[in-house]
What does this fold into?
Amino acid sequence: MLLEIKELKAGYGEIQALFGVELSLEEGSTLALIGANGAGKSSLLRCITGLIRPTGGQILYNKKNIAAYRPYDISAMGIAMVPEGRRLFPSLTVEENLIMGQCNKREQEWTLERVYDLFPPLKGFRKRMGTELSGGQQQMVAVGRALMSNPRLLLCDELSLGLAPVVIKDIYRTLETVTKTGLSLIIVEQDINQAIAASNSFLCIREGEIVLSGTRENADRNLIAKAYFGN
Amino acid sequence: MIAWIDTLIQGVLLGGFFALSGLGLSLSFGIMHIVNIAHGDFLVVAAYLCLVICGLFGLNPLLAIIIVIPLMFLFGYALQKTILNKGVDGGELSPLLITFGLSIILHNLLQEFFSADAKSLDVGAFEVASLNIGPLHIGWLPITILVTTLVVYYILHQIMESTKFGMIVRATVDDPEITSLMGVDTKKINCLGMGLSMTIVGIAGTLFGIKSSFFPLAGGLQLLFAFEAVIIGGMGSIWGTLLGGMSLGIAQTIGYRIGSGWGEFAGHLVFFLFLLLKPSGLLSKETQHA
It folds into this structure.
């Protein structure tokens, strides 16, 4: 098991966002985390990456509890995130944004050339500021930047947010290619169909609790809708 | 006409010093988002440090800068690591209060060790030597300060734009949270940033001690000038601080030309006008990077 989360509790000050979340992920598999706005999906990813310190529970990554680790240590262990809204560095060029991914000094599998092969349009924009690109191109940079950190586990937060359907399709197709190399993936999405189609299994989270889990093959739309909306 | 040209030249030369002293403040705000109330006092500390080094080793102050620089870097690094980084976690007001407290502590420590008497750093005849171009007499010391300022700005620009460290600093300024996800210890970057800021303060403080006398409470006015240069130039913009310093220097010398009591007032007036009409400054962070 690459990632195992047990009884995870976390929040922001006095507001609790996660109430005993449980999750497990096999190496090389893809998990979709679905749920409505404010359900706790992003909070869960922030816990895994160390941006939020959990108030209880365990995050076992490669059998090591990383719940109290700092984000830069977690990055060095091979967990990367594509954040919601891309969040490229506005002062940096496309290439510099990508190079930033290498700051964790992990052994190099991903190089600039490999990222440019994966996302050919980026090569022509390498000297442009990242934020000058279109939403889809910015998302490519955000994914490329995360890959440049040579992750074993990639967390994608709302990849499709604000993007045209054709661009979303392209990006998910690219991710499918990448996962064939053995990369594990957690996809957070509000678009249920997109997320489940791209994953081996799914979890539905509502009000900070896992309310439904299943595999892509046994995904029942009615059950999911019920879990998603809470009716 | 010649008198006005002379005023302008003297203004640019004076502005060179304001730009240099403001740069340290601009960096600490731009990188660590710390409004360093003790900035002027650190300038005075650097001058005293140089005084001690000159006394111990019998060095010329301009040569002693070589020792002042690494010591101030280490001081800045340690200050950020032990005190200011903890303050940053407590919100934006904490570092402001911490540096205010540091300012008071430094006043008392300096008075305890060096007394309230004014001191100065002696560079001999160089202090009054001047370059004579026709009717214009331009001091070599102000020229040295201006050249030093431009060199420091150039080096800093090169560090920020052409090195991996500079790239990481820019990323940290943009988004510290995402930078930490890239495997960067942003608190360490803050320490290095404060070290860099104090390095510049070390240079500016030594030059301040050479160009004028100093005493433990002299930092207050220097903080005000540095702050005005940063605000006029645009908070967080390094090149803006250069322009801000120049504007302040020119305003003050024009003020002095009008009347001896008008110099600093003219500078404050320009600062006030900027606050009123263009509070974002000449080059705000939104329009200018590094």
Remarks:
- The first helix of chain A runs from residue 41 to 48.
